[in-house]
Amino acid sequence: MAGTKHDLDEKDMEEATISPFMSMFEQFRNELDEHQDRRERIIKASRDITALSKKIVRQLGSPIPPPIAKEIKTRYDSIKDFFTSIAPDLQGSNGWRYQKQISGGCQEYVEAISFQHYLETQTLITHQEAQGLIPGGIELTVDDYVLGLFDLTGELMRFGITSMAANAALPRGAATEGNDEGRDILVDLRSLRTNFESLDTSSSSSDWSYLKKDIEKKIEVMKQSVEKVENAVYGMIIRGRERPKGWVPDLNEGQERSREAVESY
């Protein structure tokens, strides 16, 4: 008996050609698209935060003139807007998933706020205080906080060298009990150096810790910054009278071990 041929209508053919896994892969595609869009938003915001933070650092001085203070406040407001805009993308586990993308911006921001905090109070901003200046519930990791403070030493070095060139003296804080002249910036830099050198990251449980990966390079650059101020002070004391007014110390003087530059503006 001859076989009977059955013609499939359009609907049957369409159902036969659609894989049962199609909907699953469409969901995967949508999740990957969302991930990529979220990642790009965070990267862009981090770059904008970095750029604005660098501009703030360049404008900071002691004292800060009112017009500059107003411009700095505007930049801080813009930075907070950028943090707020990506806050929904960094909630829960996404805060760690995209830590690499936001880390650079957080470090530069810590550098800016810690520099201003030091100029105003001659104290180091705490992690809790820095966290309070980041809106939207975005977590400031301890790694980003510490690495931002490492970069602060470079700004303190530049500030100290510039002040020496203009005033023939290191910047000092207000007089305190037992110290009529006030504490100068070199004392603070040496204190930072001592504390940074005592850091122990060997017990870190995370192999991708930024602090663990960058600590050696950061410590070397930090040491150079402190030594540059020390050499400038020695030169000013020993040969200061021989130098013309407005002389600026050579920032590379005495640096025989390494020529690696401190992070530029």
Short description:
The protein is mainly alpha-helical.
Describe this protein's structure.
It contains 9 helices and no strands. The chain has helices spanning about 10-15, 20-60, 65-85, 95, 100-120, 125-130, 140-165, 185-195, 210-240. It starts with 9 loop residues before the first helix and ends in a 26-residue tail after the last helix. Residues about 255-265 have low confidence and may be disordered.
Helices and strands in order, then pairings?
Elements: H1 10-17, H2 22-59, H3 66-86, H4 94-97, H5 99-121, H6 127-132, H7 142-167, H8 185-197, H9 210-239
DSSP helical segment count: 9
Specify the overall morphology: elongated
How many angstroms does the end-to-end distance come to? 89 Å
Number of strands: 0
Helix content: 55-70%
The overall pLDDT, averaged over residues, is 83
Portion in beta strands: under 5%
Judged by helices, strands and strand pairing, the structural class is mainly alpha
- Low-pLDDT segments: 254-265
Characterize the biggest β-sheet. none
Rg computed from alpha carbons, rounded to a whole number of angstroms:
27 Å
Q: Encode the helix/strand succession as letters.
A: HHHHHHHHH
